[in-house]
């Protein structure tokens, strides 16, 4: 059980049913509450029949914490019982809790007080040496200024004590996120968006492509701040789980409710909404992709108590962000109403190389003779953490020959595991959106968005909606200069999808972006109706394109040329062409009957065409 969850569980049980610690912990005096990570606190309890709180001691395996909570009656002999706690010299940090601090000091130091009498009795039983050790230890406690808990009810005393102790214990634990690479700046940015000092209820959305580290970032933040909330829950992989099981987990984590009978999602939602409104909670909703998931799990800000924070990780912000006119503003807003948005950043080169080296060499940097090729792998991955981890782990203890073969393969074909992760977003697209995605991957990276927009509009691909969806799915970006951009791994995914249309015969594929492949198909009259886009560059300046070469390309809508000329009768050819980019276009065409009825974009750079 996480430290914060353990604390919240104890306080909740006391508050809800006025139970003592003994009741909460099921009475065995030294019941152990387990926590992952090798940190196992033990809470020991004793209680008199007259409801006098006598001794609480918390002794973790690490940290050397001792805590004593008592009212005016403190029977020191209870501490000596082996089943409760083994007495040691107080080391590290200690926190005395009781009534007025002056009476606390007096009771310990005065030979006439209850502590003095207990020591005297103990000396008779165990001898002067043992009693002297206790006396010195208790004087040490008396010198420590603790909390004044006078006149507090038992439930409040427990709550205050636990809050103080657990807040001090938390920093003593080694946090697993300390070892994460390149994530700390992003943690600070998200924590800043969370605005932990404010009382509003806030949703923070962490978005980005698959494999970029959204879940890892959310986990690191959760570990760091969850102790500041009354209740906490981390719902992992929402997209892959049914809502009812997720709501059951939410009920257990935040409300401590166990249900044996089946309760439908809406009935459970009403119950959670009713009991959450006064609680300060931290809730992580990981890998969410639909609006109804949000409504059934977190609903609205009014569900939660002041200061609550809900963190959502997603590769699709389309169901969360407000609709925008992307021609004027094609970026996801930083905030909207209760929602704040944070886009994951690509890893910096140095951090990417460190992460790759940790998996491939089990060190923070590669050996000198592997440095250059390691940098090539980092560049090929595009700084995507998933790719760096998967590929680095595969290469661990492999020969240089395997490294070189793997690099050559990855430069043309994405890693299978990475591809599977990225395909999730692509498969959510409809046909028109997929065509836009593949066009960008194969031909339009770096192109002006507005130019491509006109072509897609002429093809009835509904680019206004299509581009908006691609942006919110983190599949593309539009840079500040209005140019289309795509991550290297997504570019490779798109091109791999096209190549898989027909592995052996390129002429059966929809798009040919490699000039050599495209030229071979055209010059050998291998064109088919499947081809919609061709890049015919790097040819001899005097090359002529004949009508026969284009007669087998009825579906062609994108054509990029560099030099050359059209020769022959082009009547009824290129009838679906909507984009023609022709560098070094000749001033006079040798073709007849050429009519490009559907042409939407014509780009004639570095050409001798006269305006008249």
Summarize the structure.
The chain has 612 residues and is α/β, with parallel strands linked by helices. Helix 12 links the parallel strand 8 and strand 9 (309-314). The chain starts with a helix and ends in a 9-residue tail after the last strand.
Largest beta-sheet details: 6 strands, mixed
In oligomeric terms, what are we looking at? Answer: single chain
Strand content: 5-15%
Secondary-structure class: alpha/beta
What is the count of distinct domains?
5
Shape: elongated
Q: Features of this protein?
A:
612 residues; Rossmann fold; 5 domains; 40% helix; elongated
Can you characterise this structure?
This protein has 612 residues and is an alpha/beta fold. The chain has 5 domains: 3-171, no CATH class; 176-343, Rossmann fold (3-Layer(aba) Sandwich); 349-411; 421-499; 507-603. The strands form 6 sheets. It has a 6-stranded mixed sheet, with helices on both faces. α1 runs antiparallel to α7, α4 (101-109) runs antiparallel to α6 and α13 crosses α14. It is elongated and about 120 Å long. Mean pLDDT is 76; it is low at 16-94, 97-109, 169-174 and 324-331.
């Amino acid at each position: 059980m996480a430290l914060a969850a353990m604390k919240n569980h104890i306080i909740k049980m006391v508050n809800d049913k006025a139970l003592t610690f003994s009741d909460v912990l099921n009475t065995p005096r030294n019941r152990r509450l387990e926590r992952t990570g090798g940190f196992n606190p033990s809470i020991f309890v004793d209680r008199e029949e007259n409801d006098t709180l006598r001794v609480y001691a918390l002794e973790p395996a690490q940290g050397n914490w001792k805590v004593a909570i008592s009212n005016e009656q403190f029977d020191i002999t209870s501490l000596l019982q082996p089943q409760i706690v083994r007495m040691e010299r107080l080391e590290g940090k200690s926190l005395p809790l009781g009534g007025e601090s002056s009476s606390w000091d007096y009771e310990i130091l005065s030979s006439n007080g209850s502590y003095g009498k207990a020591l005297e009795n103990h000396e008779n039983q165990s001898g002067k040496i043992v009693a002297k050790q206790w006396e010195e230890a208790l004087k040490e406690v008396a010198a420590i200024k603790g909390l004044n808990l006078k006149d507090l009810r038992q439930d409040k005393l427990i709550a205050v004590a636990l809050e103080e102790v657990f807040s001090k214990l938390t920093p003593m634990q080694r946090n697993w996120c300390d070892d994460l690479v390149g994530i700390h700046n992003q943690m600070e940015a998200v924590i800043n968006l969370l605005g932990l000092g404010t009382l509003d209820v806030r949703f923070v959305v962490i978005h980005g492509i698959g494999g970029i580290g959204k879940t890892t970032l959310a986990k690191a933040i959760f570990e760091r701040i969850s102790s500041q909330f009354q209740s906490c829950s981390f719902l992992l992989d929402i997209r892959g789980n049914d809502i009812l099981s997720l709501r059951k987990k939410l009920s257990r984590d935040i409300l401590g409710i166990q249900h044996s009978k089946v309760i439908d999602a809406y009935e459970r939602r009403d119950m959670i909404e009713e009991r959450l409104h006064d609680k300060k909670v931290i809730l992580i909703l990981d890998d969410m992709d639909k609006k109804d998931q949000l409504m059934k799990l977190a609903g609205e800000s009014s569900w939660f108590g002041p200061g609550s924070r809900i963190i959502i990780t997603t590769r699709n912000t389309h169901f969360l962000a407000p609709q925008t006119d992307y021609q004027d503003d094609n970026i996801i807003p930083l905030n909207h109403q209760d929602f704040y948005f944070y886009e994951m950043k690509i890893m910096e080169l140095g951090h990417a190389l460190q992460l790759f080296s940790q998996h491939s060499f089990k060190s923070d940097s590669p050996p000198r003779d592997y440095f250059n090729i390691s940098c090539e792998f980092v560049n090929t991955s595009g700084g995507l953490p998933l790719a760096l981890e998967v590929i680095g782990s595969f290469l661990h203890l492999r020969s240089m020959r395997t490294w070189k073969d793997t690099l050559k393969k990855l430069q043309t074909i994405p890693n299978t595991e990475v591809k599977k992760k990225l395909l999730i977003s692509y498969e959510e697209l409809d046909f028109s959106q997929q065509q836009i995605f593949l066009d960008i991957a194969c031909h339009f990276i770096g192109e002006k968005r507005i130019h491509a927009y006109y072509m897609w509009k002429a093809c009835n691909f509904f680019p206004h909606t299509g581009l908006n969806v691609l942006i919110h799915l983190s599949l593309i970006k539009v840079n500040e200069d209005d140019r289309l951009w795509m991550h290297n791994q997504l570019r490779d995914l798109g091109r791999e999808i096209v190549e898989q249309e027909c592995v052996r015969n390129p002429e059966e594929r929809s798009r040919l972006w490699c000039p050599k492949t495209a030229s071979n198909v055209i010059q050998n009259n291998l064109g088919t109706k499947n081809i919609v886009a061709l890049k015919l560059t790097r040819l001899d300046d005097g090359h002529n394109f004949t009508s026969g070469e284009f007669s087998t390309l009825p579906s062609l809508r994108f054509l990029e040329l560099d030099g050359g000329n059209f020769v022959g009768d082009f009547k009824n050819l290129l009838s679906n062409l909507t984009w023609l980019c022709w560098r070094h276009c000749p001033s006079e065409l040798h073709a007849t009957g050429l009519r490009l009825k559907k042409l939407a974009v014509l780009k004639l750079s570095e050409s001798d065409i006269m305006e008249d």
